[in-house]
Write a structure and sequence with these properties.
The protein is mainly alpha-helical and 234 residues long. The protein contains ten helices and two strands.
Length: 234
């Protein structure tokens, strides 16, 4: 999937959808898991770890969730197709069905940001720095893979190969503790977000608390990225 995204972006001059036929853009975005509008992933790392039909957010429409559950398809990508082919009017129509459909869960949802509303939201790019969080997750995944590979080589009795591998990846291996701390802290913050969403707080209070937790995630990702950059030879 990552390779496909790279090929798709290299094929398009400037890494944009400038010369990509409009009829193909939503499909290419879904397959590559890449939004030409936000210049980032459609689905984050945590969402990709779930079964497709469970990949939705607080802002995802009940119609998209229902279609996703019935077809085993990501509701996030269903909405991306609707947005790509029908535009803001299509998204507004889909959201309008929410009033007549049973909601997922029985608690009040957080007040939406302006950028999350079905019509106005399409005019804005997200301002929650999801890109840097996903970038750090990518680096953490690579570091964990390196650490696991080294451990497996030792377990298989391949001492010489393990030492050579460690020498080649010594900086990434040294960053393993930072990577582990990042993952632990992010999991803690995600659990806190889940608790807030399930709480009895008002919609406005939930929005305030969730925004604060998002700021903490962004700060954690930014600080971790800085540590990685400082400890990586140029």
């Amino acid at each position: 999937m990552v390779a496909f995204r790279g090929i798709a972006l290299q094929t398009i001059p400037g890494g944009t959808s400038l010369f990509l036929p409009a009829a193909l853009k939503p499909i290419v975005e879904n397959v590559a898991n890449y939004s030409f509008f936000t210049q980032g992933q459609l689905e984050g790392k945590r969402e990709q770890s779930l079964l497709p039909e469970y990949r939705y957010r607080d802002t995802t429409s009940e119609l998209a969730k229902g279609l996703g559950m019935a077809t085993g398809t990501s509701p996030i990508k269903i909405e991306n197709l609707i947005r790509g082919y029908l535009g803001p009017a299509g998204m507004a129509l889909v959201q309008s069905f929410d009033f007549a459909m049973p909601k997922t869960g029985g608690v009040e949802q957080a007040t939406k940001r302006l950028s999350e509303t079905p019509v106005i939201g399409t005019l804005f790019q997200p301002n929650d720095a999801k890109g840097i969080i996903n970038d750090v997750y990518d680096r953490v995944t690579e570091i964990n893979q390196i650490k696991s590979t080294y451990t497996d080589l030792l377990a298989e009795g391949k001492g010489a190969e393990a030492r050579a591998f460690l020498q080649q990846h010594v900086n990434e291996y040294a960053q393993a503790a930072v990577a582990g701390n990042f993952r632990t802290q992010m999991e803690t913050l995600t659990k806190a977000e889940t608790a807030v969403k399930a709480s009895a707080y008002s919609a406005e209070k939930k929005r305030e608390m969730l925004d604060r937790l998002r700021e903490l995630k962004i700060r954690m990702a930014t600080n971790t990225s800085d540590v990685f950059d400082r400890t990586t030879p140029r």
